[in-house]
Write a sequence for this structure.
């Protein structure tokens, strides 16, 4: 199943690309799929295609378009450095506004027959949390969202259902950050947090050395069950 790139008007002018993947039925609830620092690369497109195969309308926006449109790299050390540099240049408030525009674009499409969730990985996991607070999604999934613990002032605004996945051996997100996130949502029923033993950062990506097949499978099963419950 091959998707295509479409144009989305940005709130502050200009347009940016987003990868659109449609299910065979051509109708379904929506997912805004948010990239890692590596761009809307082969892996992210394959993830979008997989969720489309599960029956969802998936739209994955180019977060870095203001700095370098269609930036895309792999996972070698040089690519990681380039991706981190792109993240450092990104205006987070504008990126979140772009996500809100992506959500609106997805809702307006004739194929989108239900609610819209965000799903993000790494940087995208953090942005998915910010989307839950600011971009009007109906639900959010956050995979190893580095930066969530630094944005917990947004927690009162994040009232939709949220599912978070973290690796117990994540070298970038200490368990103290996970516990701080748990604490910010203590007593609230809308947030579900899972920690995967033996899993490090990027455990869902089968193109990275940190890929953990068992953790990725379980997290995906939980994510699909969550989506069925919240947006189907």
């Amino acid at each position: 199943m091959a998707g295509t790139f479409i144009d989305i008007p940005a709130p502050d002018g200009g347009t940016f690309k987003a990868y659109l993947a449609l299910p065979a039925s051509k109708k379904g609830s929506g997912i805004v799929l948010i990239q890692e620092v590596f761009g809307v690369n082969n892996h992210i497109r394959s993830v979008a295609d997989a969720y489309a195969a599960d029956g969802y309308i998936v739209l994955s926006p180019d977060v870095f378009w203001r700095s370098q449109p269609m930036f895309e790299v792999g996972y070698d050390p040089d690519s990681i450095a380039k991706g981190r540099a792109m993240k450092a240049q990104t205006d987070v408030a504008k990126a979140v506004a772009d996500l809100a525009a992506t959500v609106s674009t997805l809702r307006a499409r004739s194929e989108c027959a239900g609610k819209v969730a965000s799903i993000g990985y790494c940087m995208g996991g953090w942005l998915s949390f910010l989307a839950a607070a600011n971009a009007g999604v109906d639900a959010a999934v956050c995979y190893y969202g580095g930066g969530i613990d630094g944005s917990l002032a947004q927690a009162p605004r994040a009232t939709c259902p949220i599912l978070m996945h973290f690796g117990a051996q994540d070298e970038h997100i200490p368990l103290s950050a996970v516990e701080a996130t748990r604490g910010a949502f203590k007593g609230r029923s809308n947030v579900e947090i899972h920690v995967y033993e033996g899993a490090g950062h990027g455990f869902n990506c089968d193109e990275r050395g940190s890929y953990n097949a068992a953790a990725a499978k379980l997290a995906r099963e939980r994510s699909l069950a969550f989506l069925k419950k919240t947006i189907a």
Notes: Residues 213-230 form the longest helix (18 residues). The mean pLDDT is 97. Helices lie at 42-53, 77-89, 92-108, 123-134, 175-184, 213-230.
